[in-house]
Amino acid sequence: MKEIGIGIIGTGFMGKAHAIAYRTALSAFPHIPVPRMVMVGDVTADAAAKAAHQYGFESSTGDWRQVIANPAVHAVSITTPNSMHKEMALAAIAAGKHVHCEKPLSPNLADSLEMVTAAEAKGVCTQVGFNYIKNPLLKLARDMVDAGELGEITGFRGIHAEDYMHDPQSPWTWRIDPAGGPGVIADLGSHIIGMARFLLGDIAEVSADVRTVIRQRPVARGATEMKAVAVDDVARMLVNFGRGCGGTIEANWIQTGRKMELGFEVTGEKGSIAFTQERLNELHFYKAGGDARRSGFTRIEAGPQHEPYGGFCIAGGHQLGFNDLKTIEMAEFLGGIAEGRSAGPDFREAYEIQKVVEAALASSRQRSWIKV
Amino acid sequence: MKEIGIGIIGTGFMGKAHAIAYRTALSAFPHIPVPRMVMVGDVTADAAAKAAHQYGFESSTGDWRQVIANPAVHAVSITTPNSMHKEMALAAIAAGKHVHCEKPLSPNLADSLEMVTAAEAKGVCTQVGFNYIKNPLLKLARDMVDAGELGEITGFRGIHAEDYMHDPQSPWTWRIDPAGGPGVIADLGSHIIGMARFLLGDIAEVSADVRTVIRQRPVARGATEMKAVAVDDVARMLVNFGRGCGGTIEANWIQTGRKMELGFEVTGEKGSIAFTQERLNELHFYKAGGDARRSGFTRIEAGPQHEPYGGFCIAGGHQLGFNDLKTIEMAEFLGGIAEGRSAGPDFREAYEIQKVVEAALASSRQRSWIKV
Amino acid sequence: MKEIGIGIIGTGFMGKAHAIAYRTALSAFPHIPVPRMVMVGDVTADAAAKAAHQYGFESSTGDWRQVIANPAVHAVSITTPNSMHKEMALAAIAAGKHVHCEKPLSPNLADSLEMVTAAEAKGVCTQVGFNYIKNPLLKLARDMVDAGELGEITGFRGIHAEDYMHDPQSPWTWRIDPAGGPGVIADLGSHIIGMARFLLGDIAEVSADVRTVIRQRPVARGATEMKAVAVDDVARMLVNFGRGCGGTIEANWIQTGRKMELGFEVTGEKGSIAFTQERLNELHFYKAGGDARRSGFTRIEAGPQHEPYGGFCIAGGHQLGFNDLKTIEMAEFLGGIAEGRSAGPDFREAYEIQKVVEAALASSRQRSWIKV
Amino acid sequence: MKEIGIGIIGTGFMGKAHAIAYRTALSAFPHIPVPRMVMVGDVTADAAAKAAHQYGFESSTGDWRQVIANPAVHAVSITTPNSMHKEMALAAIAAGKHVHCEKPLSPNLADSLEMVTAAEAKGVCTQVGFNYIKNPLLKLARDMVDAGELGEITGFRGIHAEDYMHDPQSPWTWRIDPAGGPGVIADLGSHIIGMARFLLGDIAEVSADVRTVIRQRPVARGATEMKAVAVDDVARMLVNFGRGCGGTIEANWIQTGRKMELGFEVTGEKGSIAFTQERLNELHFYKAGGDARRSGFTRIEAGPQHEPYGGFCIAGGHQLGFNDLKTIEMAEFLGGIAEGRSAGPDFREAYEIQKVVEAALASSRQRSWIKV
To answer: Which end of chain A is more exposed for a tag (fewer CB within 10 A), N or C?
Structure first.
C-alpha cells in the first residue's frame, strides 16, 4: 500500500486541523503510505472549493456523499457536528471506507453502538479524534504505569476545564443544542475520560454531579430574549477504576480563565506523574526512594527520546504544538490502515468512553453510584 | 488587658510552633496584649523542663492539670493527640481559661459538641488550629469572593494531599489508631473543608468515597508482622455548597511526592482564583473582561499591602513561612481575647467542619448523598 | 501571483522544517500564493529522492545548482551548513531567485556583506531563519514596547542557552569547525541578539567575554585521541542599545540541563515583560500602577487574539509548537514575495546581527568595549 | 556559656527582624546559648521604649552608646543606616562586644577595612547580614558544588533585582544619598555577589556597567522640585571567578514588577542548579546522565532532610519564610560566639564582597576589566 486517498467532510476548526495533519504526516512518519489529498466536502460547493485551494485537495464538493462515493478516496475524516456523524459514518463504512470521526462519536449510546457494529462488521479501520493522548509524553506516562514504575496505582485526579461558555451573555448556539447530545461531559469530559482509560484502563463505576449552572442564555449575542439551556456545563465525578483504585474527574466549560486545563495526577505507591495540556511538552515525575535531599518532581521536557517527537524535530526542547498532536493522530490512522488494523482510539473505544458519560449522567439523575 | 498568661500542653511539632508563634506575635502585631510565657506541660517533667528552657517559659510541669490550674495562665494551647483534646479542653474551660486546641477538635462529633457547648456556656474564647487560612492571601481571596469580584461562584476544587503515609512499609502508629478518630479525612480533610467554608460558606451535602488503600502495615518499622489499618487514607468528595455551587474536595495522605499539596481553584462567572500552599506567597487571579490580548492569570505576590504581612516585613516578596501563619493565628487568638470574642475559627466552626467529615464518612458507607 | 515554486537545498533538520512549513503555510495564511513544492536538492541523488518522496516535492537532485537552475523554482531555501551559504545564495540571487537562508548567514562579516549587496542589487526578496521572533507573543511584546506600555525602557536581559555540547566527551564535529565561523555566539547568540534587536532596536556597543571552556574533544565518539577546540562555547555580553538602555546577553551551548533556555526580560519604568521559549505560548506581563493588592505578573496565554495564532487554531490555549513558528516564518516570506518586499528578517538584518557578534568577539579579544 | 546578652541598635525593618530572630533562635536551635534580650537603642528614648515593649527587651535607650556600655550586653546588632555602621561597630568592638552589622558594612572600602582590622585585633566575633545564604537549600547547593556533583563548574548567572525605586516619581531619600555609599550595587549587589562567593569562591576580575538610569527625583513625594541622583540604580557585571569559570551578575532596583528576583543558575559539566528567592523553598537540580527519557530538572522542596529546616518544622513542604532565614543567621551568630569563632559571613567576608563592588565601580568608570 503506497498511497491512501483522503477525503475530509467538514472544513471548520477540525477539518482544517485534519488537512494540516495529513499533509504533514509523511514528513514526520516516513514509513506510512503517502496520504493523497483527494477530495474535501462542505455544505456548499463554494466553501468546499475554497478549502480545497487552501488545504491542497485535488477536488471538492458541496455534497458530502460524493466524498464517500469517490473511488480514489480510501479514508474519510468526518469533522462535522456530532448530530451528523452517524449518517456519514455509516455511509462511509457501507462504502468500505476507513473512517476517522471526530469526538464524541454520536449524541447517544445506541447510535454509537450502531456505528461500532457496522464498522466491525465491515472490517474497516476506525479512529476517533482523541488527539491529546497522542502526545509523546502521554505515551511515556502510560509506559511508566504499565511498567510498574509508580507501583500499585492509588489514585487519579483528572480534569478538562475551559472557559468558552463561562460568560452568561454568550449566546445559545448549536453547541448547547441537546440534539447534539450532552454538554460539557461529552465535549470535554470525553477527552479526560479517554485519557483516564488510556492511562489506567476501565472505569467500573461512577458517582456524578452533572449540572447546568447557567440556565439560560440570550438567543443571539446581545439579544435580550433568553432561551433555556438544557445541557450540562459542569460535570464532577467520583470514579472507581476496574483495577481497583479510585479517582475524580471533572469536565467544565465555564472555568473562567482556563483555556486548556486538561490535566491529571496519577499516583502510585512508588511514584506519581502530573501533566497539564497548558504545558504539553512537560511531564512531572516523582519517584519515591533514593536520596531524600535531592528528591522531588522532575520536569521532563519532550525530546526525540520520546517517540515520535523526533519525527518533528531532532532536538529536545523545541516544543510540539496542538497541530503536531493531530499529525501524530492521523499518521497513526494511516499507519494502521497500512497494517490492516485500527490504530486507535477506534469506534469501540469511543463507545466505551461514551458509556462512562452515560453512566455519569444516570448517576447524577439518580443521585447514586452507577456501574458503567 | 495588658498581658495574657500562656500555657501550652504538649511540646511536639505543634507545641513548638505555638511557642514560636506566641513569642513572635507582639512583634508582628503591636496592639495585642503581651503574651507571657507562663508554663508548659508535657507527659514527663523532664521533657517539659527542656521545652521550658528552649521555648522560654517561666515554668514547666509533667502534669498537664497544673498548667490549667496555674492562676497566671489565662490561655491554654492544647497540642496533644486528638484523643486527649476533650478532657484537657473541658478542664481548661471549667477553669475559665481561653482555649486554643489543635485540629481536629476530637475523634467524634458528640465529644466535639460537648466541647463547643461547654466553651460557649462558660464564655471563654476558643480557637482551633486551622492555620493555613491565616495567610494574608487567603484573606484577599475571601475578600474577592465576598466583594463579588469573581461574580456568581460556579465551582470549587479543593485538595489537601501529602505523602507521609504513602509507603506501605511505613508502620502502624498512633496516627492511624482509630481511637483518634478517622484518618486523612480528619487530619488533612478538615483543613481543606475549613478552607472551603472560609471562602464559600456552608457545605450543604456531600457524596463521598472514603477508603483505606493500604490495608495493613508493619507493626513497627522493618517488622514482618502486619497489623490491619482501620482508618481512611484517601477521601474524595462531591460537595454542594449552601450558596448553590458545586465542587470537589480531596484529602489524601498517600499522594506520593506531594509534601503540601493544599490548594484550591474557585471559579465564578467573572473570574477565578487559584492557590497552592506549595507556594503560599502567591495567589493567582483571573479577571474576565478587559483587553483579551493582555488577559491571563495574574500571580499576586504577598506584600505589605496584604494585611497582616506588613507586621512581618515592610517589603513585598520576602515570603512568609509556615511559622508566620501560626504567628498570625495566635496573635488573632490573643487579640480576640483582649476584645472579648473568639477570633476564629472557634470550637463551633471546628464542629461544623467535623459535621462535613462525618457526613462524608456516612455517605461513603451508604454510597449516597448525605445532607450535612 | 498565484503560485510560488519552491526549491529547498539541504534535507536535514532545517530542510525538513522548511518543507513542513511550506506545506502548511497556506492552511494557516489563506491569502498568500500557493507554495508549489518543485524541487529538493541534497548531496546525493538518493537522499534527495527520499526527501522528495517524504516531503512531497515534484522532483529532486543530487546537484544543488539544478535547484537554482530550475525555471519553476522562484524561491530557494538554503538549509546547508554555514560554510556553504554564500556560494549557494549568490548563485540563487544571480539567477533572480528569492532566497531564504538559514542563520548565521555566513562564517564572516565580509562574506555576509557580499551576500547582502548582491541581494539588494538584484532586488530579490531575502529572509534569514530567525524563527523564534515569529511567535505571536513576541509580536505582542514588541507592540507593547513600541506603544510605550512599559514606559521608558531601562533594561534587557537575554539568554540563549542549550546543552548539546555540555559533555566534554561529545566529539569534535563540523559544528565546531572554525571553517563555519564562530561557535555558540553565532549559532545561538545570533538568535538572542536578533530577538533583542527585534524588541529594542540597534545595539550600539558591547563588552564581551567569549570563551572556549571545553578546550579539547575526542575526534570521534568514544575515541581517546583528542582534538583542540577553537570556537567559543560560552559568550557573555554587556550591551548598550542605541535607544540608551543597557543590558546583558548570553549565549551558551554547554548549559547542562537546558534544552531551550531562550528568553528575556525587558523592563521599563512602567512595566516589564518576561519570556522563555521553554514555554513559548506564554508571555509574562507586569503593568505598574493600579490596585497594589491585585498586581503582579500576568501570564498571557497565546490565543487567536494574538495574530497569526488564529490561522493555526481558533481556540486559545491549544499551543503552537516549533514547526508552527517555522510556518509563520515561511508564510511571511511567501507573503513578502507576493508583495515585492522582504518580510524579514532579511539578509541586511542578519548582517546587522552578525556585526554585533563580530563586535563581541573583538571586545573579548581586546578586553574592552567595542562599538558595533 | 549559657546565656548571651543581646543589644540591638536601630528598630526599623532590620531591627525588628533581628529581634524576632533572636527570640526564635533557641526554639529552632536547642544547643545554642540562651539569647537574653537586654537592651534596645534608637534615636529617641520613646521609640526605643516602644520597641522594647514590642520586641521583649528588658530595657531601652535613646542613646546607642548605652547599649554598648551595658555590661549585660555581650553581642550587639547594628541595624542603622550604612553611614552610621562604622562608628557604632568600632565602639562596640572597643568595648569587647561581638558585633552583627547589617550590610553593606560601610560606605567605602577604607572604612570597612578599619572595621575588619579592629574586630580581628580585638578578637570579637562578627557577622554581616547576608541572610539569604542561610537558606537550607543554599547550603545544599554549595554542598553539591563542593562535592563535584555538577562536575567542573562552567558558568554562573546571578541577579538581585527588585523594583522599589522603579518609579521616577519615587522621591529622593536617604537610600540614594551618596553619603551612604553606592546605590544598588551595594544594597542588592552585595547580596548576589556574596551568594556567588558563597557558592563558587573568589571573584578575580570584573567588567561592569554601573549606571544611573533615573537621573533626578522629586525632593519629596509629589513635589515638583527635582534633585539629581548620584548613585547607581542598575549594575551589570561580567565576572571571572578565581576557580576559572566566568559569569554574569546583575543588581537592579528599578526592575519593575520584581519584588525579590534574587536568583542564580550554576552550571557544571555534569549538572546544574537553579534558584530564585521568589520561591525560596525550592532548588532546581539537573543531573546529566541517567535515563534520557526521564531526565530533567528536579524541583527539590525544602524539608527536614535539609538542615536546619527541621529546627523549624518536622515536616517537609511547610515552607520557611524570610524571618526564618534571619533566625538561622542569628542562631549561627550565637552558636559561633559560644564556640569562639565567627560563624560568618564575618566582617572580613563583607569586606571581600565590597572589594568586588568597588572593582565593579572602577571598571564602569574606566570601561575596562578590573582585578578585584
So the answer is: N
CB distance from D297 to chain C under 8 Å?
Answer: yes
Q: Where are the domains of chain B?
A: 3-131, 132-318+350-366
Instruction: Give the chains touching A; criterion: ≥3 Cβ pairs < 8 Å.
Output: B, C, D
Q: CB-based contacts of B87: which residues, under 8 Å, 6+ apart? A: none
- When the pLDDT of each residue in chain B is averaged and rounded to a whole number, the result is 97
A367 in Cβ contact with A211 (< 8 Å): no
Nearest to A321 among C27, C162, C321 (CB): C321
Candidates C139, C140, C149, C295, partner chain B, best to mutate (most B CBs within 10 A): C295
Under an 8 A CB cutoff, do A292 and D305 touch?
yes
- Closest Cα in chain A to D303: A293
Instruction: Determine if the peptide bond prior to C178 is cis (ω within 30°).
Output: no
Contacts of B56 in chain D (CB under 8 A): 23, 26-27
Q: Given an 8 Å threshold on Cβ–Cβ distance, is A315 in contact with C13?
A: yes
**Chains interfacing with B (3 or more CB pairs < 8 Å):** A, C, D
Contact D342, D336 (CB under 8 A): yes
Q: Read off the pLDDT band of D174 (50, 70, 90).
A: confident
Q: How far apart are the first and last CA of chain A?
A: 40
Q: Which residue do the cell numbers 456552608 mark?
A: B202
Contacts of D259 in chain C (CB under 8 A): none
Could you give the angle at which helices A322-339 and A13-28 cross, rounded to 10 degrees? 70
Residues in chain B: 372
- ω into residue A104 within 30 of 0, thus cis? yes
d(CA D258, CA D40) in angstroms, rounded, equals: 33
Contacts of C248 in chain D (CB under 8 A): 236, 248, 250
Cβ contacts (< 8 Å) between A240 and chain B: which residues?
209
C-alpha span between B15 and B100 (Å, rounded):
11
For the segment A35-61, what is each residue's pLDDT rounded down to a tens digit? 999 999 999 999 999 999 999 999 999
Q: Rounded to a whole number, what is the distance in Å from the CA of C358 to chain B's nearest CA?
A: 37
Query: Would you call D36 an interface residue with chain B, using a CB distance cutoff of 8 Å?
Result: no
Residues from chain A that touch B273, judged by Cβ atoms under 8 A, are none
Summarize pLDDT for A118-176 with one digit per residue, the tens: 999 999 999 999 999 999 999 999 999 999 999 999 999 999 999 999 999 999 998 89
| Structure confidence by residue, pLDDT tens digits, D37-83 | 999 999 999 999 999 999 999 999 999 999 999 999 999 999 999 99
pLDDT, position C262:
98
Which of these, B110, B234, B105, B231, lies nearest to B179 by C-alpha position? B231
Q: Say whether domain D132-318+350-366 belongs to CATH 3.30.70.2740.
A: no
Tally the C-alpha atoms within 13 A of residue A34's C-alpha that lie toward its C-beta.
Answer: 13
Architecture of domain C3-131: 3-Layer(aba) Sandwich (3.40)
Query: Minimal Cα distance from B250: which residue of A?
Result: A248
Pairing of strands B126-128, A216-218: unpaired
CA distances from B273 to A184, A188, B266 (A): 22, 22, 5
